[in-house]
Specification:
The chain is α/β, with parallel strands linked by helices and 1536 residues long. Helices cover 63% and strands 8% of the residues. The chain has a 6-stranded mixed beta sheet with strand order 6-7-8-4-9-10, with helices on both faces. Strands 16-19-20-13-21-22 form a 6-stranded mixed beta sheet. Strand 11 and strand 12 form a beta hairpin. About 8% of the residues have low confidence.
Length: 1536
């Protein structure tokens, strides 16, 4: 420096440090200060210019702002060089100046030119706001402040007027530049910002706005004013969208795969050559042995690594985040050093005050910088994670569309969906922590280094404690995990049982079995709570370990330090600097185990994803699709096909030629390869040899119709444009027009997943309509006529497939079982065991008398019988057999297609079908219900009704603030006194921790007063006692709070809800989809069990910690109270904004997440259809759209966390600043120990403030569960189960007389009456048949007997007792019903017959014998303990029906109601049931709802209902003589 500055001083500590008016020496001011910004800019600009070259965002027009900046830059350059030239001028005047006067202006001037160049270059590259230049101007201004001040101080004696003036101009201009660089330029021309109406403001945000996340504020405000909706979300940034991310990842993956294949081993190359000069390895010419060799060699090639692809695609972006992390780690350790200086400063009585102030502001500055940098790092990490998820989902989706069948079979749909949901999510979670992998060790090493400097080797004692805590925590984590698995098991068991209860609730009510099932659930719940209690003990331990860890570490370290050596004195700076370093150390030690376990999980996920993406793909070239001009539309030559490469051929030596425009039928026995042939033509099978060619486009109708979850119209159009006339013709041809009239929304009806609200026949017809609409050249139809009934099949064949149908002139291949159509086809192909056995026209094949003739003989008999049955049965039940739940199609496919009388009747029909149908499948129930609720608005009355019905459908989602009442509910469940006591305990724990720290500060003051050694043991002892009592309090609190009171609350809430649900009336279950109730029992109960207690615990701890800080700071420096108020107001304000917005964003995110997975699982099941129609690209786009839609709400969620973090940490940093400032101001009154205490407390507060907001927000989202559970605990109940003073005598009803007196009933309030003024008397022992058209009120009559429907008017009297006056259980246990759908529960067979264990084994065996089940049961190994699976799946439908019969026989009551099963039972079983009933229930009153009239022809009387009134009531013979309604029905059934 001597050379540069000549005789100017560079550094003088008297001038700088030890004075009340500090100033920097002249040489320092001339060299280091102006050089700093220059060095910065010259170092960063090469990288920056390179970055801008790569990322061009478009061109920005020259604006006023830009011009001003440029002009100012040039003026600055002129100003600097004026200095330079004046130096030269002075030199010529022989006034020699030191070289520094030449060097500095030269450097600064050059830098100003560089800055001006950057301003223009950024404009050309479309940068709207520059971080690099902003930082440059900031540093320039900061560095110029010192000379500015010095020049002001000594301005009276200014010799150098020119330089003085120039400096002021320079300072003013840099300041203006700094202010200007805060403003943004206009967006570049043609950028997305201009075109997109809802662009994310981040794109146009300035540098400052990006650093502080100011751009998010607009959404926070919007979310605070009203709950956010989908339309409020910003569109996704271009570079985060699937259309950029996925192709980028896939191209890297392709590179990776081609690399892996291009490194074959030497042997393998040899094998390639052997195959002949130009043959591919699996071409026809390779002999089988060689092929084997090839396959085995292939395995040795390197597996392509998906990890490398990910790193190359997302690594560079992620590394920016890592750089931020590194900076932040280094800055973290500045504060403890500043704290040391501050404590030193308070010790020196004569130190100048300005030094203290600057330390305080330095602390604030570093904290602020650390905050900004940390959140930038998080932003980069989270965005990388988000892109990673988009990329992985996109890659998996695209792969799933092209994998071979063999690969598809190796993983179930569920597994693949898991790859998307779970595994992609794991990666996303890992990426956020990944940097901890190197940052944690770095932080630990740095912290130990500084600690060692501070305390020497005693540090090792403290570290030893920390290290010992790690295995303890690992052990606790392991145990917790095993308990979690166990708890999940119990929970699944409970939910499964609950699901069955909800599905079979009607049966439970009819049999009065609720109590028994309630007990079963409570037993499981007891086990579950026991496991939860164990988990709570563990978590209490772990909480204690973590909370007292820093204290234990400090205690051991200080104790060892003081006792090792007489001379070691614990003074304030040592103690508190060490404490703050230990606090820094806590985080990485806590994180490391988590990061490692999450890396292990992610590596498993990586392997799974990589395996899936490496599966073989279908060869798109296997079918030749070129339009060659042969007359054959489809030809297969010597085709041999198998389902996978290893299997032996399924189809062997197939030769098929289908002429253009002909109709080929493919017939053969089950499993002979008909479907395989169709798949081979589509290219779905592995072609081992031969050639296939198909001319033109293909339409495909699979055997199991694949229906998308979209509207009916979309299913048919399948991406083609809508042409009304063509569309209507298609509907007409496929017999779909009548169905549309029944469907609630016509062709705009939303069809549930897998086509749940269509019958099998309707699904098949929609699938056909899709093919017909696509106007392809070749139609492949795989048995489309099997699911529809005979006359519809005939209609479709005539109108669509047959020689006169809509497809005449097209090439059609039809796989069929229907013999009746064969005479009308052009050619028939007979398949036998994977070979073509014969082919020719119908006549030719009959003459040959080969396989085909035999096939005909076998089938035609059955066919003829079937036709007869069709005429006999009243309602054709071809459809009903497969889909008993199908209410809608009854209408269209009714043989006698009776004119539909009126809408009301139709409505009843639907309601009826809801009442009596399908309790097996909850989803179907709810879907069907929704359908039936949305009527065509045909009449005003109906419109009103529609509104009312809708009320029931929508689940109430709470928006906005959670009411205080809910918290009070929860506190009541815990116990009000206990709640207060728990809060008090948390307070005590806080007090103990404050006490310990105050004691420490007092101890450190000994050092000043030199009373050190005499009290060491007492000091250490008290410190230990205070700390240990804090640990004990935590433990006690956790146990009391989580293991006792909160579990009590969980038990109570579940019990009340269960009780309320079982007491709810039947109508409740019809209006509430069972999924919704289940959700309350699974998700919400789980939240109350485990999530809320944890939230409350953490919230309480952070709350008290924050209160501690404020108390300590205020107690030491009362002035602090002035600052607290505005800071807390700001905190409260920020937190309100954040909670409102983030809660709604979370909701939106979870709502938009499930469509991704449901669309995906739908796609997987329909890949062959999608490929056949060539819709791959469209579906990929659809999937990408759904992912982007989800990320659209996820991205603001990330940003909201960052936004909050920056603001909350700013409050924390202010607390640090004021704590330090007030410590400096009151330094004379405060001892160094207390200063250390207050500042080190303040340094920790940011963390707890941050956590508190997060926990508040989580608690608010989760406490809603209490509200939802409470809502269901207060559902209205049905009549009491037992009315004490009205209990009927035990032997009631003695005779079984039933009387209806003016009886009317309706389903729900506000609906029409279902039965109107019915009066009839039935004597004991009579057999009554009830008949009537669908919806006449037959089932309602039986439901009224059991009071599942309560009377609207009138009474039912059984043996002199009005049934409306006695308890429900008393009534229901005295009646028996055999319901239409047999419902079984999972459990033993014995439990299904007799859940209360009232009867002996002999009685049970006896009824099994009577119900023809004895043989079946005694053949089972477990006899009566035979386990029935859920819904009785492991018994056939007929057997289930017989079990229901056995139940009835076991109860043997005076009155039996039989709801005759239609589709479930074959005729034989039906006869068995009828004969058993006739013999066993001879003296009982029997009501039978009959569908097959022949069963009731010998009954005493028959009741004919019509529109809810009695139309006819007499003996069967009389009724037939009357020629009324009954006669008509009997005639239809062919009985007269």
């Amino acid at each position: 420096m001597k050379h540069l500055c000549g005789n100017l001083t560079f550094w003088d500590s008297n001038l700088t440090k030890h004075t009340n008016l500090p100033d920097l020496p002249a040489c320092f001011q001339l060299s280091i200060l102006p050089w700093t910004p220059c060095i910065y800019l010259w170092l960063t600009s090469p990288f920056y210019i390179f970055y801008l070259k790569r990322n061009n965002r478009g061109y920005i027009m020259m604006s006023i702002l830009n011009r001003i900046k440029t002009v100012l830059g040039l003026i600055l350059w002129i100003v600097c060089w004026t200095d330079l030239f004046s130096s030269f001028h002075e030199m010529s005047q022989n006034q020699s100046k030191p070289p520094i006067y030449f060097v500095t202006p030269l450097i600064v001037g050059m830098t100003m030119l560089l800055a001006t160049f950057l301003i223009q270059y950024e404009r050309l590259k479309g940068v709207q706001s520059s971080g690099v230049l902003f930082i440059f101007w900031t540093i320039s201004v900061l560095c110029a402040i010192v000379p500015f001040r010095s020049k002001l101080m000594y301005q009276n004696g200014v010799e150098d007027k020119l330089r003085f003036t120039m400096f002021y101009i320079y300072f003013g201009l840099t300041l203006i530049q700094l202010i200007l660089s805060c403003f943004n330029e206009k967006p570049p021309l043609f950028s997305s910002v201009v075109t997109d109406p809802n662009a994310c403001p981040e794109i146009t945000a300035g540098f400052l706005s990006k650093m502080t996340f100011w751009w998010f504020t607009s959404m926070a405000i919007k979310g605070y004013k009203s709950p956010l909706e989908n339309k409020d979300l910003w569109s996704l940034n271009k570079q985060d969208s699937s259309e950029l991310v996925v192709p980028n990842l896939l191209s890297e993956w392709e590179v990776e795969k081609s690399k892996a294949q291009s490194e074959p081993s030497v042997k393998e190359q040899a094998a390639f050559r052997k195959a002949g000069p130009d043959a591919e390895p699996n071409h026809v010419s390779v002999s089988p042995e060689e092929k084997e060799v090839l396959l085995s060699k292939r395995k040795e090639a390197r597996q392509p690594s998906f990890l490398r692809a990910l790193l190359r695609a997302f690594g560079p972006y992620f590394l920016i985040g890592s750089a931020f992390k590194l900076l932040q780690d280094l800055i973290t350790f500045v504060n403890p050093q500043l704290l040391r200086m501050l404590i030193e400063f308070t010790k020196q009585s004569n130190a100048p005050l300005w030094w203290g102030y600057s330390l305080a502001f330095l602390m604030f500055g570093t904290s602020l910088l650390q905050t900004l940098i940390l959140h930038q790092h998080f932003q980069y990490c989270f965005v990388t994670g988000m892109r990673l998820r988009s990329g992985i989902i996109g890659a998996i989706y695209r792969k799933a569309l092209v994998i071979t069948n063999e690969a598809k079979r190796s993983s179930t749909v569920g597994e693949v969906v898991n790859l998307m949901s779970v595994d992609a999510q794991r990666f996303m979670d890992l990426v956020t922590f990944l940097n901890m992998l190197w940052s944690a060790p770095l932080q630990i090493i740095l912290a130990l280094f500084f600690l060692w400097q501070n305390l020497g080797p005693s540090v090792l004692a403290g570290v030893a404690v920390m290290v010992l805590l790690i295995p303890l925590n690992a052990f606790i984590a392991m145990k917790t995990r095993t308990y979690q698995v166990e708890q999940m098991k119990h929970k699944d068991e409970r939910i499964k049982l609950m699901n069955e209860i909800l599905n079979g609730i009607k049966v439970l009510k009819l049999y009065a079995w609720e109590v028994s099932f309630k007990e079963k659930i409570l037993q499981i719940r007891q086990k579950e709570l026991a496991v939860l209690r164990k988990t709570a003990y563990l978590s209490a331990l772990s909480t204690m370990a973590w909370t007292s860890a820093p204290f234990m570490v400090a205690l051991t370290t200080f104790a060892v330090y003081v006792n090792v050596d007489e001379d070691n004195v614990l003074d304030a700076e040592k103690a508190f600097v060490s404490l703050s370093l230990f606090n820094i150390l806590r985080f990485p030690l806590n994180m490391l185990p988590q990061v490692i376990s999450s890396i292990v999980q992610a590596s498993v996920s990586l392997k799974r994803i990589q395996d899936f993406l490496s599966h073989d793909e279908l060869d798109p070239e296997s079918v030749d699709r070129r339009n060659n001009a042969s007359e054959y539309a489809v030809s297969v030559v010597n085709g041999t096909f198998s389902w996978s490469k290893q299997d032996q051929a399924t189809l062997d030596n197939i030769n098929v030629m289908v002429p253009q425009g002909s109709l080929l039928a493919v017939v053969g026995h089950v499993g002979c390869g008909k479907t395989s042939l169709v798949c081979a033509l589509l290219g779905e099978m592995e072609k081992q040899e031969g050639q296939i060619s198909i001319r033109g486009s293909v339409a495909y109708v699979p055997q199991q119709a694949w229906i998308q979850n979209a509207t009916l119209r979309d299913n048919i159009l399948f991406g083609r444009p809508y042409v009304e006339q063509k569309y209507n013709c298609v509907l007409e041809a496929c017999a779909l027009t009548p169905d549309l009239e029944v469907l609630p929304g016509g062709d705009q009806t939303e069809i549930g997943e897998k086509g749940i609200n269509l019958s099998g026949g309707q699904r098949q017809r929609v699938s056909l309509a899709r093919a017909l609409y696509s106007e392809a050249d070749v139609y492949l139809m795989d048995d489309p006529l099997s699911a529809v009934d005979a006359h519809v099949a005939k209609h479709i064949f005539d109108k669509v497939i047959g020689p006169e149908g809509a497809l005449k002139g097209k090439t059609r291949i039809l796989v069929t079982h229907g013999i009746s159509f064969l005479p009308q086809v052009d050619n028939i192909l007979v398949m036998v065991d994977g070979h073509v056995s014969e082919m020719g026209s119908y006549q030719d094949l009959l003459k040959q008398n080969g396989a085909f003739a035999e096939f005909l003989r076998n089938y035609s008999l059955e066919d003829i019988i079937e036709d007869d049955e069709l005429i006999v049965s009243l309602v054709d039940d071809d459809e009903e057999e497969e889909f008993p739940e199908d209410a809608l199609s009854n209408h269209t496919d009714m043989v006698d297609n009776e004119p539909v009388v009126n809408e009301a009747r139709r409505q009843f029909m639907r309601q009826m079908s809801i009442m009596s149908n399908d309790l097996e499948n909850p989803k179907k129930m709810s879907r069907r219900r929704r359908c039936s609720e949305r009527k065509h608005p045909e009449s005003p009355t109906e419109k009103k009704e529609l509104k009312m019905e809708k009320l029931i459908q929508a689940e109430t989602a709470e928006t906005g603030r959670v009411k205080f009442k809910v918290y009070w509910e929860y506190a009541k469940a815990v116990g009000p006194f206990l709640s207060v006591f728990i809060c008090f305990l948390y307070g005590c724990q806080s007090a103990a921790s404050i006490g310990a720290n105050f004691w420490l500060s007092d101890w450190t003051n000994d050092a000043q007063n030199n009373r050190t050694q005499d009290q060491v043991s007492m000091r250490v002892g008290v410190y230990a006692a205070l700390g240990i009592s804090q640990g004990a309090l935590i433990l006690a609190n956790c146990l009391l709070c989580r293991a006792y009171s909160m579990l009590k609350a969980a038990h109570q809430t579940h019990l009340h809800m269960l009780h309320a649900i079982l007491r709810a009336p039947q109508a409740f279950f019809e209006a509430t989809p069972s999924g919704r109730v289940l959700n309350r029992f699974s998700k919400d109960v789980d939240t109350i069990d485990s999530v809320i207690p944890e939230n409350i615990d953490i919230w309480m701890r952070t709350f008290w910690y924050t209160v501690n800080v404020l108390i300590v700071c205020s107690a030491l420096t009362p002035m602090f109270l002035i600052v607290i108020v505005p800071l807390m107001l700001f905190y409260w304000w920020v937190q309100r904004f954040y909670v409102a917005t983030s809660r709604q964003l979370k909701r939106l995110e979870s709502v938009s997440r499930s469509p991704i997975y449901s669309h995906f699982s739908e796609t997987i099941t329909g890949t062959s259809v999608i490929r056949a129609y060539g819709r791959n690209a469209a579906f990929v786009l659809l999937s990408d759209m759904k992912v982007d839609e989800n990320q659209k709400s996820y991205y603001p969620g990330i940003a909201s966390n960052r936004w909050l973090g920056v603001r909350i940490e700013f409050i924390g940093n202010c607390i640090v600043l004021f704590a330090a400032l007030f410590a400096v101001i009151g330094k004379d009154k405060l001892s160094p120990g207390l200063v250390g205490l207050s500042v080190s407390y303040a340094l920790q507060v940011t963390m707890s403030l941050n956590w508190m907001v997060r926990m508040t927000s989580d608690l608010e989202s989760n406490i809603v569960a209490v509200e939802r559970v409470k809502e269901y605990s207060e559902t209205q109940t049905e009549a009491p189960w037992i009315v004490k003073d009205k209990q009927p005598p035990p032997d009631w009803p003695p005779k079984g007389n039933v009387e209806f007196v003016d009886y009317s009933v309706r389903y729900r309030e506000g609906l029409d009456l279902v039965l109107r003024n019915i009066s009839l008397k039935v004597k004991g022992g009579e057999k009554i048949g009830i008949v009537g058209r669908t919806g006449a009120g037959k089932s309602s009559m039986t439901l009224c007997l059991f009071r599942l429907l309560e009377a609207a008017d009138g009474d039912i009297v059984i043996d002199e007792v009005k049934i409306s006056e006695i308890g429900l259980h008393d009534l229901r246990s005295k009646l028996t019903i055999i319901p239409q759908e047999p419902v079984l529960f999972s459990g033993t067979l014995r439990m299904n017959l007799d859940p209360f264990e009232k009867y002996s084994d002999e009685e049970v065996w006896k009824v099994l014998e009577l119900s023809h089940l004895k043989k079946f049961v005694s053949n089972q190994t477990s006899k009566l303990d035979l386990e029935c699976s859920e819904g009785g799946e492991n018994l056939s439908v007929g057997q289930r029906q017989l079990v229901c019969l056995a139940r009835a026989l076991l109860r043997k009551t005076r009155i039996l109601v039989l709801d005759e099963a239609t589709a479930a039972v074959d005729l034989e079983t039906d006869d068995l049931i009828q004969s058993t009933i006739r013999t066993q229930f001879e003296d009982c009153t029997v009501f039978t709802i009959a569908h097959r009239l022949n069963t009731i022809m010998d009954y005493t009387r028959v009741l004919v209902l019509d529109k809810g009134q009695i139309a006819e009531f007499d003996t069967p013979t009389n009724l037939i003589a009357q020629k009324g309604i009954f006669y008509g029905m009997a005639k239809d059934a062919g009985l007269v």
